[in-house]
Amino acid sequence: MKKKFNTTGLCVPDMHYMADISRQISEIRLLVDEGCYFTINRARQYGKTTTLAALAKILSDDYLVINLDFQAFGSSSFENENKFSLAFASCFLDELDTDKIQSQGITALKELSSIIIANNNTLGLMQLFKYLRTICIFSKKPVVLIADEVDSAADSQAFIDFLSQLRYYYLKKIKDGTAVFQSVILASVYNIKNLKSKIRPDEKHTSNSPWNIATDFNTDMAFNIKEIMGMIEEYDTDCHIGMDICEISGLIYDYTSGYPFLVSKLCKILDEYIAGSTTFPDKKSAWTKKGFLEAVKILLEEPNTLSDSLINKLEDYPELRYILNDLLFKGKEIVYVIGIRSIEMALMFGFVKKSGNNIVIANRIFETLLYNLFLAAPEMQQDIIFNAALQDKNQFIYNGHLDMELVLKKFITHFNEIYGEKGEKFLEDDGRRYFLLYLKPIINGSGNYYIESQTRNMRRTDIIVDYNGEQFIIEMKIWHGNEYNARGERQLLDYLDYYKLDKGYMLSFNFNKKKESGIKEIVLNSKTIIEAVV
Fold first, then answer.
1. SS3 of residue 79 by DSSP
2. Are 266 and 299 spatial neighbours (Cβ–Cβ below 8 Å)?
3. CA gap 472, 477 in Å, rounded
4. Mean pLDDT, 10 residues at a time, over the chain (534 residues)?
5. CATH number corresponding to 22-207
C-alpha cells in the first residue's frame, strides 16, 4: 500500500510518512527506566499519541505496558469514584496480557474481572489499587502505565483521588520498595500539576497538587530539520521526484518550527493538492519553493482541526488576546514569568514558545494565522484605511507582479490624511498594525506575509511578503535619528543578501514634526532601497 502523509490520529510507520522520533523516544525511555512518574503536556496535535504508541512498542521488550486512552472511558465514568474505578479496571484488564502474569496474581485478576462483570458491585479506589498492586507485583515484567487524553478527566474529583493513590504508592515505593507501577506517563494538553477541580458542593474551585511527585518533562517533541529531512528523503525516493531536499526541508522547518501537525499538513497539501494542479502539473514542479508557498497559502485559508482549536481557545480565554496583541503588533518583549496565567495558557495551548528568557510566537504559520484573525475583526475591517486599500488594490498589480513601491506611496498618503493628527503613542503602538491592515486586502488570495522573528521588537520589524512566487522585504521601524536609520539600512542589506534579492523597502514612522514625509530611492552596495517616511 502506498504511504501517505497523515494529519489525523495515530501515525503508523508502514502506512504513513513520518519524521524519525527515535530521539524523543530515547529521552522518554530514560525517564521510564529511572522509574519516573511524569506528564507529557503539549498542545493539540503535537504528536503525543503517535509518540506514546511508538514508546509502548519499544518498551514492550522489557516492560508490561498498559496503554490507556481516557476518552474511551466515556464522560459518565468520571462522575464518581465507583464509576471511575470500574471504568479504569475494565480498560486496564482489556490491555493486560494475562500470559505475563504469574499464577500468584491470577486470583486477584479473576476477582477484579468478576467485580466488573457484576453490575451491582461497587469498587472504590483503595480496593482497586490493592488489586492493581497484587497484579503488578506478580507480573513477569515491571508494569508501565500510559494514559492518553487525561484532559477528559480534568473536572473530576475521582481523577484527583486517583492521582492521590498514585502519589501514595509512589512514595511507598521509595520508602519500602513496594511498587504498583514502574513508571506512569499521563499525556494531556492541560498541566495536571495545576489541575483545578470542582470538589465542593458549592461549586467553588480549588487547586490540587496530588501530582507533585511528577518529574519535569523537558523533551523537545518538535521535529528538527534533520528529522524532517529524513521523512522528505523517504518520500522523494519512493516517488522518484529528485527535489531539492535540503531546500524544502528548510522551508518546512522555517515556517513550522517543527510543529508535527503543521509539518505533515504542508507535506500532505503538496502531495495531494498542489501536485497535479494546473500551475504545478507534476510532483517535481510542486515540491519547489513556489509550490511550497502555495501550500502555505492553502493551509492558512482553509479551516483545519488545529486552527479551529486555536481560535476556540481565544474565544474561551479572552486574556490570551491581550498578550498576543502585544507580541504581534507592539513588538513588546515579554519575559517568561512562572505563574502568570496568560503566559502559562499561551504556552500550554501552543501559541507561543520560550526563547531564552522571553516568549515568542511559536511559528510563522501561527503568526500569520493570528495576524489574519486579528486584522479580520469587524472593527478593523470597518477602518477607513482598510477600505482605502480595497479601493486601491487593483492598481498595485501589473501582469501578476506586485508594485510594492506604489503600495508604500499610497499608504503614506492615506495614513497622513487619516491619522496625521494622532500622537506619538498611536504611531508607536498602532502604526505597524495599520500598514498590515492596508497590505492585507492587496495581497489577499495571491500572497502571504510573515514577520521575521529576529527583528521583532518595539523599534524594528521586518515583514517578508510572498506574492506569486516573488518575495519583498519591508523593514518597519520607529524613527530614532539618522544614525539609527543608517544602521537599519545595513541590516536590511544583510537580509537582501540572505534572500538573494536586489531591492528592499523601509517604512519609518517619524514623530518629528519637521519630518519630510514621502519616498526616496537610494543605492547601497549595488542594492536598491526604497525608503518611505510617514
1. coil
2. yes
3. 16
4. 91 95 97 96 93 96 96 91 94 93 90 85 91 94 95 87 93 84 93 52 50 92 97 97 97 96 98 96 96 93 90 91 86 86 92 92 93 84 84 87 94 86 63 85 84 57 84 85 82 87 90 77 92 89
5. 3.40.50.300
